[in-house]
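Practice set, problem 2.
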Amino acid sequence: MLRRAKRLAETFASLFKRHLALKYIWVEWVLPFEILNIIFAIAGWYFFAKVFGRESPFLKPYGGSFIAYLILGMGIYPFFNTVLNQPYSLINICYSSSFVAGGVRMGWADYLQLAGIPIPIYMASEMLITLFQHIITLGVYLFAGIFIFGMQMPGHPNYLAAFLAVFLGMFAVLGIGLISASMIWIAGAWHGEEPIQWAVSMLAGLISGVYFPPEVLPKPLLALSQFLPQTYALRMARLSILKGYSISQLSSDFLILLLFCVILLPLGIVILHYSLKLAKKRGSLMSF
């Protein structure tokens, strides 16, 4: 058991290093353009708020600054979007794409099997390197917000509580992502758009509090936002950073996020394994 765990850890580390080397070009060439895109995007919202904004009672719980509220939302939300969307896209690539090597056509999943790389390890390394990019992007958002647009930070921001909020939120949303990936076989969603992923992604971008507090929404949409883990994770992260709240002060959001994790992640794993068994009955798939 320990030998197998060590081999899996070494495989994961090797894949991550390979992805990191490949992503160097992103840092060298794409990131400078990404930084400018972020700065100009923030500037658009900043000047919009200057012209049309007023002191909003909905922002007071978060310190009253719209630009601080917005920057944290835009910087943190991609973490949730990655774990929501990538399980479906990666599994779809593994089982629907193919390439020719030495005159032999094989699927990507076949290649991974021949290389001795378990598909969950491959998926984890792909998602982790994307999350690593988001960490860099979040740093750019915060740097631009503080040093260019005058974003005010409290005296004692609680970064530990913010990290815990993002961490729990990611695991809760990952459960939804795994359920979405299982629809490849359960619902035949091979064609690049999957209903669960599409609906959650669309709703979360509007009602979970990425760009504005959910409290401004009509009551039906506000009630619907309470069923999304992103809502609680974003609120908990903002209050811990902008107001310095402790985990005990955020206990309600913390416990709800924990409940989402306990329910959604195991449920996603079980449904995904069921969908793979279903696929094996219909054809021939390797062990996941």
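Problem 2, part (b): a different protein.
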Amino acid sequence: MSRFLVTGGAGFIGSHIVEALLARGADVRIVDNFVTGKQANLPAGGRFDLLVGDLAEEGVARRAVAGCEYVLHLAAIPSVPRSVADPLPSHRANVDATLHLLLAARDAGVSRVVYAGSSSVYGDSATLPKREDQHPGPLSPYALQKLVGEEYCSLFTRLYGLDTVTTRFFNVFGPRQDPGSPYSGVISLFIDAVLEGRRPTIYGDGQQTRDFTYVEDVVAGVLRCCEAPGIAGQVLNIAGGGRVSLLEVLDTLTDLTDRPIDPIFMPPRDGDIRDSQADITKARERVGFQPSVPFREGLRRTLEWHRQSAVAPPSH
């Protein structure tokens, strides 16, 4: 079985990928600096190597990739508001670390790097659904940083022959998404507020839409991109392919919890986009990707995880 490096493997999406790889019997190494990742996200009793360090440091990147065939690069500071408030740390995590990792992967002879891109690179284009060949229009430092990472991946494929694939994620949600931060995904923040009896905050009028994608589908898409032939240097949308407004999210939560929800409306935030929806035709045709978890079912599973986490005793 191949050896996989999962960067950011203690994070929300990364930990789910680690879990799936271990279930397949893969040999897994995790690198994480625990700025956004959590020890609690790592599989209990899982057989994996853990390297604690910052990939923006050359030595850490080189130790991380040594002996690995596949690199799944999830490590990032994945927050638009955080990048707007303080762009320099985001740049280090999202650009400097990516460049160091690509250089290390090139020199180590890695078979393929799968890079976690972001739908934020599309900006606020009125064209829906978003296709991979659309001209990018980033509206935040985070979006620009993720676009630079994509371009570096493509360049390394053309210039150095390093096999890279970019998977553009849309609004991923599911268990382990941290609701304890103002930079968390909107669904985790909504659920936390509802379960605590607080009014959730909506920035804007609530009619803005997102392509909410359950984390299990994202994991399946990333793993399909590891070994699919003929996609070196390509960008693929990995998403649900649908569109749900924030008010529809709250309506569904009301139905699932039997609790009426009256949000607090605040002005829109800088860098936020109005509508987002992925065209997943390319991913379907090139790697056989097909999302399988409907939005309501994903929300039900996520809600159940939050409920269980709220009553679970603290770990020691």
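Answer key, part (b): Residues 73 and 115 are 5 Å apart (CA to CA). Residues 3-174+212-239+278-293 form a domain with the Rossmann fold fold (CATH 3.40.50.720).
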